[in-house]
């Protein structure tokens, strides 16, 4: 009986120790690494989307005219605005340049896509939104132009 009692207890302790080690390791992970990963991941999605639009502009215009159908915007204007927002937002995020502004802009793009274009793709949009909200709320992190500029301003030059 004692043997049966000891085995689950030691297994339980091992699991608790393992859990504590994982939590300690995760807590030690610098937030700036997470911010960089979030910026690169979202930037890649929107950069590729813009590249696809630019690769065949006539097809893009047809998509905006017949499939996307954004209210109140002429399809050519909507396509131009979407492509511009995706290109500039992706570049800004990748560099960490005005990253909070880029996040706001791309959150607007995601909201538009979710509401008017692909409402059934909410899980994917929620993932993008989560990463963009991280950047919006915590900034671009140490590995960014924003950080370099802020450091220079604080140094007085």
UniProtKB/TrEMBL annotation:
It is found in: Cell membrane. The chain crosses the membrane at residues 97-119, 125-145. Belongs to the DoxX family. One of its GO terms (cellular component) is plasma membrane. The keyword Electron transport does not apply. It comes from Rhizobium fredii. Keywords: Cell membrane, Membrane, Transmembrane, Transmembrane helix. It holds the Pfam family DoxX. PANTHER family: INNER MEMBRANE PROTEIN YPHA-RELATED, OXIDOREDUCTASE CATD-RELATED. It comes from the Bacteria. InterPro entries: DoxX, DoxX-like_oxidoreductase. This is DoxX family membrane protein. It is a multi-pass membrane protein.
């Amino acid at each position: 009986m004692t043997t049966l009692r000891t085995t689950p207890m030691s297994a339980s302790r091992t699991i608790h120790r393992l859990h504590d080690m994982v939590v300690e390791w995760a807590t030690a992970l610098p937030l700036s690494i997470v911010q960089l990963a979030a910026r690169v991941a979202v930037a890649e999605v929107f950069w590729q989307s813009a590249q696809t639009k630019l690769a065949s502009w006539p097809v893009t215009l047809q998509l905006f005219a017949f499939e996307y159908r954004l209210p109140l915007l002429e399809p050519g204007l909507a396509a131009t605005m979407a492509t511009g927002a995706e290109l500039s937002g992706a570049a800004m995020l990748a560099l960490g340049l005005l990253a909070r502004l880029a996040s706001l802009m791309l959150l607007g793009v995601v909201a538009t896509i979710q509401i008017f274009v692909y409402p059934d793709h909410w899980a994917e949009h929620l993932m993008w939104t989560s990463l963009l909200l991280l950047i919006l709320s915590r900034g671009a992190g140490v590995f960014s132009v924003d950080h370099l500029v802020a450091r220079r301003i604080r140094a007085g030059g």
